[in-house]
Amino acid sequence: MSDQDKASTSTHTDALVIGAGFAGVRMLIELQKLGLSAVALEAGTDVGGTWYWNRYPGARTDSESWSYCFPFPEIEQEWDWSERYPGQEEVQRYIGFVADRFDVRRHIRFGHRVTAATYDDADNTWTITTDDGNQFTCTYFFTGLGHLSVPQEPPYEGLDSFNGEVYLTGRWPKEKVDFTGKRVAVVGTGASGIQTIPHVAEVAEHLTVFQRTPNYVMPAQNHDLDDEFRRKIKSDYAAVWNKARNHVFGFPMDPAGRMYDDVEIDAERDRIFEEGWRNGGFHFVFETFDDLILDQRSNDAAAEFIRKKIREIVEDPETAELLTPRGYPYVSKRPPSGTNYYETFNRDNVSLVDIRTNPIEALTTNGLRTREREYEFDVIIFATGFDAVTGALNNIDIRGERGVGLSEYWAAGPETYLGIGTPGFPNMFMICGPQSAYANIPVIIEKVVEWLGRALTYMNEHGYDRMQPTAEATARWTEHVAEIFNMTLLPSGESFNSWYLGANIPGKPRRVLFYFGGAAGYFQEIEKSASHDFEGFEFSRLPVASGR
User: Fold this and answer.
1) How far are the Cα atoms of 102, 132, 362 from residue 161, in angstroms, in the given order?
2) For 35-87, where are the alpha helices, taking DSSP H only?
3) How far is the C-alpha of 466 from the C-alpha of 449, rounded, in Å?
4) Higher model confidence: residue 64 or residue 544?
5) In the beta sheet, which residues pair with residue 370?
6) pLDDT band at 9, cuts 50/70/90?
């Protein structure tokens, strides 16, 4: 086949999914169950999504493995997690195992990066175009692009002038990278940087960390899982999922059951925080005080406890001071988990540079230059975060009714209904799109995909061809999402570049990107819509004259 013939090839299916991570694979399983023909287009060469691209040293979940998965009984009994917080390779193997177990890999076209999606009003068809010119048409168009799939490019001059090795954590090479005996820079101390830094420090001749904003880093307290624990989880997985679906963040945890005012003695509060610290990760957030993101006093107590821990762990007072977060509440930026993060700064071969007061100006031939001095490196690693939530959608030229572009419609920020649909884009369904729940993502994906399966069944049973949210429902949801967000302490993170609002990307419109009413609250909202004939959505049929 010639290149010209290849470019003109068009494949039609009932449904098309972009992405083959958790969302894409789970959607393919649902479509297969419904008996619909489907194809998924994936830019990578394997399944995994986020867990395919983010192969950087130390990459692992900060959700516990037994809830960072799908609630399929047959798979729950077959699959064994090795660690409390699984690493990148294990998570990607799990997604591959699921894809193979349900035989959906055959529906995935790897190496296909989607560049455009256009809706045809006349025949109710989406045309999806890939970077090699191939086109696919479908009736139902699903995006499973992930919240963190578009890395933020390093915003520095001279990127091409550096003679050494340059890596971006969000696009890490498949080949192993050896830092042994090298002078290495890591720019960025968000979640990716926090996981990378300790691993690089173990082998590098010297590691220099460039930090703009210090983070409240909780110890992950990761460990291997033994057979007895795995048997215990598998024996009552239904209880695990019931607890996760009713938890504010989608975790199988119980709420703390206490507020700040329920504890009158500071020493008792510290004891509670100490227990949360020992349990690690998000247990500190959700099992200490239930008003931690609502009551400034509660948050201040938690933040000061973490600051005290930093001062206890980091031996050099000056370094400890630089690593100590101030000026914004705990959790108003995404709280990362790390392993030996603060301890790493006690190593003789690790140094810290504050780029808030001494900003990076440019890369040079031999390294990089800040306002105060030049540094020489063999390797520079950029852990500069993501254009979260909307970045992947805006990178595709998506055009709905009358040719209106999604990025144009969202010029002032995203507007969706339930994080699933947007007016003017019929039969385009976002799996955990903007303004969906901020929570343990596989748990949210599972419920959203089940909802989408019900919606497609409803359309088929009632003879509808098109489904999209109403403008009124979308406006109400966007307002509701902002209202909930503003009831918390989270808005304070904006001035410290929180990606909850898109504030980490220069020029990006500020809008709340998640529903912060909790997983259980979100499930109630989507169920309320479904149980009332998908209230908030409008349905239509194509005219008979169209030839259908």
Assistant:
1) 48, 30, 10
2) 50-53, 73-78
3) 18
4) 64
5) 360
6) low
